[in-house]
Write a structure and sequence with these properties.
Order of helices and strands: EEEHEEEEEHHEH
Low-confidence stretches: none
Radius of gyration: 13 Å
Helix content: 10-25%
Distance between the termini: 18 Å
Shape: globular
Strand content: 35-45%
């Protein structure tokens, strides 16, 4: 998996990338009560706000980690936002995207670098 400074994880899956938020981000948010996901087929650019996640503590935006197209979203976390707290790096993925340039994944952090970031 790769990681962003915005506490997102990216897991390559064939020619797609699965994206979610890290356990650290989930813990910082507290109990998640609402998730809004992007529409499939939407083209996004790195840094675009594409998801909204609300917890009992705050609302946060999730940004596109890289340029590409949203090809699938996880309706399960819309129906049951608590999954984000229960299994942030498994069942609670947010969306799948087809990257415009898959080589850009190489510029993201690996797990060791992410652990250094969060201390």
């Amino acid at each position: 998996m790769k990681y962003t400074e915005d506490h997102e994880w990216l897991r390559p899956e064939g020619d797609l990338v699965v994206v979610g938020i890290t356990a650290h981000a989930s813990e910082q948010l507290g109990d998640v009560v609402f998730v809004e996901l992007p529409e499939t087929g939407k083209s996004v650019s790195t840094g675009d706000e594409i998801c909204v996640i609300e917890s009992v503590k705050a609302a946060s935006d999730i940004r596109a980690p890289l340029d590409g197209e949203i090809v699938d979203v996880n309706q399960d976390i819309v129906d049951n936002p608590g999954l984000v707290n229960e299994d942030p790096t498994g069942k609670a993925w947010f969306f799948k995207m087809k990257l415009a340039d898959p080589s850009k994944l190489d510029g993201l952090m690996d797990e060791a670098a992410y652990k250094d970031l969060i201390g």
